[in-house]
UniProtKB/TrEMBL annotation:
CDD domains: GAT1_Peptidase_E
Family to which the UniProt record says this protein belongs: Belongs to the peptidase S51 family.
InterPro entries: Class_I_gatase-like, Peptidase_S51
Name of the protein described by the UniProt record: Alpha-aspartyl dipeptidase isoform X1
UniProtKB keywords: Hydrolase, Protease, Serine protease
Gene3D superfamilies: 3.40.50.880
Gene: LOC108556887
Domain of life: Eukaryota
NCBIfam families: PRK05282.1 (NF003642)
Amino acid sequence: MRNLLLISSSRVIGFKYLEVAQDEIKNVLSFNSVSTVLFIPYALKDYDAYLNTVTQPFTDFGYDIEGIHEHEDPVEAVNKAEAIFIGGGNTFLLLKTLYEKNLLGAIRKRVLENGIPYIGSSAGTNVATCSINTTNDMPIVYPPSFKSLNLVPFNINPHYIESPYKAVHKGETRDQRIAEFLQMEEAGPVLGLREGCMLRVTGDRAVLKGINDAKLFQPGKEPKIIKVNEDLSFLLNN
C-alpha cells in the first residue's frame, strides 16, 4: 500500500528543521514499525554535511537514520531499506544522480510494491511525482529525462507562492509559469504546496495536511484553493 508524505519544505519560519511535519512523519513511519530511515542526499553535493543536518530531527523523532552514500551498493541499500527520505536541494541534480545510480526502478518497486514509507521534501517531493517539469530549480545539470519516480500520477510545485498584487517584480508569476506548463499536451494536474503544508498519501487516499492551504491547477479549469484536511484522492486516478 502506498505510504507517502510529500512536504513542501523542511524549513518553515517559526519552526525547527522538519518540525512542522513531525507528527505526520511519525504517523507515516509508525505504519511499518520503522526503526531506521534511509536518507538520500543527492540533491546537494556535500552528502556528509547533509546527513548531519537531518540526523538530529530524526533522532528527536525516535528514529535512526543512515545515508545511502555510506553503502557500497546504493541499489542494495534501497532494497533493504525500511523507509526512505529524500530532502531538498537541486531537483535536476537529484534526478540526474538517481538515474546514474539506477535507483528509480528500485525505489519505485520498494515503495509501490513492497509498501515501505517514502518521505520527500522540496526536491524529494518533486521527484516523487510523474515528472520534475514543475520544479522551481535552475537546471544546473541535465538528467537523461525529466520523468521521475511517478509515485503519484500528477505534478507538484513545492514552495508555491502567489505574487502580491503590487509586487515590484513584474516578471512571470508562479501561476503564469504553471499555466504555461498546463498548455502542454501531456500536462496533468499541478498541486501548488505552500510552505507549511504537505500531502499525505495512504493507499488510494490523498489528504492535504499541515498549517497552510494549497492551490490546485488543472488543465481547462480555474485554479482552486485546497484547505487543510481536504480530500484529494481523485488526483490518484489521473
